[in-house]
Amino acid sequence: MEKQLTGTLALAVFTAALGSLQIGYSLGVINAPQKVIERHYARSLGVYNEDLTRTDGANNATLEDSTHPSVVMYWSLSVASFSIGGMLSSFLVGFVSDFRGRIKGMLGTNVLAITAGLLMGLAKMGTPHLMVIAGRAVMGLYCGLASGLVPMYIGEISPVKYRGALGTLHQLALVTGILISQVIGLDFLLGNDDMWPVLLGLSGAPAILQSLMLFLCPESPRYLYIKVGEKEEACKSLRRLKGDYDMTKDISEMQAEKEEAMKEAKMSILRLVRASVYRQQLFVALMMHFSQQFSGINAIFYYSTAIFQTAGVGQPVYATIGVGVINIIFTLVSVALVDRAGRRTLTLVGLGGMCCCTVAMTLGMALQDVYSWMSYISMTAIFLFVSFFEIGPGPIPWFFVAELFSQGPRPAAIALAGFCNWTSNFIIGMFFPYLEEMCGSYVFIIFTVLLFGFTVFIYLRVPETKGKTLEEIAAVFQRKRDTSHSKAQVETELETLKNSTEA
């Protein structure tokens, strides 16, 4: 009898999710110690003003408002280099995952994370601004790869019954990493003049633990059977992951996928974009990732401290940590519900709820000068917005892409979706402050319109994948294709793609 959840499966999922924890930590760690790091940049650049520092206790704004332009530029690069690194490396997910397998792919990328941790951890011993920028860029390269490799590996080793719940653990680990970075980034812990390099350097710590634990994890059976053709090794891997059971069903499913993959051939990103037979899946996959980033979640994190301050919260940093706690709680709710309620349902509930919250936020901010209690409406809306995000739109897109595609185009699809996600993240981070300046308290109306559009799209175009094998999901899109293409046209295009020598 098949043991659906074994100790080895739990160990493998936990080990892979350490990569997600590291992404979350790296995303959140740069925010808390901003002023401390800027002072070190100013000293290194020779533009530090001691007189302003002495008045800092009396008037925090003095130091903030008088930050030297060169310090602002290097700080902006410290933040932006991370997203740029992620954008670039996300294109390489397919190559890295297929080159020597998922396990060795994750092992290899950990070299980047450890290197980045050392660069930032030793920043005081060199030129701080250059070492932090270099470290953040290298860490971005790592995170771009990990954000594709982790969901791919977890999706391929998970039993169908638990694939959604285990896939959601990527997002759970990510938000846990963000919360850890927020807590230990407090000024009385590591977010101070003496310890900030340690705070940044710890970004590489999970990679060391993951590297040791990966040696205990089995390779993806799908990779071994379908990509490499090693049936015996795939059977050993299945046995380790699921215990002693009749694996006939799993082997026949992988055989069917292998036969399909032989028709498809290996896909480059360019081929995938050009292939009309995968256009519907690709459009759905990319829209899921766009809905995640253009929902305004990162803009909310950017704006939350100001709203908490307006609401009269004495220490807004603790309210922001409260948002981090809600992140974790509602991601756990998603873990519990995703294989019961389904991916499509949770995404629709999440996007619809977020849409309503942006309306409440806009009203709260627009009227808070007239009615002081409206600022509490804004604050409540922020907490609810984050809750709805973590129920569906936050965790689901990461593993949903892997469910939509069979083995041939899957790595290229995950790479392209990852690139779109990182690029959207970068665009929001760069341009939201300017939008906020132009639109003021009405800035979230933009996200209201976007969220409404995404909700309608999900309702009309996205199929439910709960409880379906990867082959059954592919068949849903096959039926849709057959309504617009004849079977002969589809087979002809697949054969053309297979015979193509394009890199």
Rg for CA atoms: 24 Å
Portion in helices: over 70%
Span of the ends, CA to CA: 44 Å
Shape: globular
**Biggest pleated sheet:** none
- Element-level helix/strand string: HHHHHHHHHHHHHHHHHHHHHHHHH
Strand content: under 5%
Per DSSP, the total helix count is 25
| Helix-and-strand structural type | mainly alpha
Low-confidence stretches: 51-65
Tell me the total number of β-strands: 0
- What's the pLDDT, averaged over the residues? 84
Walk me through this protein's architecture.
It contains 25 helices and no strands. It has helices at 7-28, 34-45, 50-54, 60-65, 69-90, 93-99, 102-121, 128-157, 163-184, 196-201, 205-214, 221-228, 231-242, 248-264, 269-274, 279-293, 297-310, 316-337, 343-367, 374-391, 396-404, 410-439, 444-461, 470-484, 487-499.
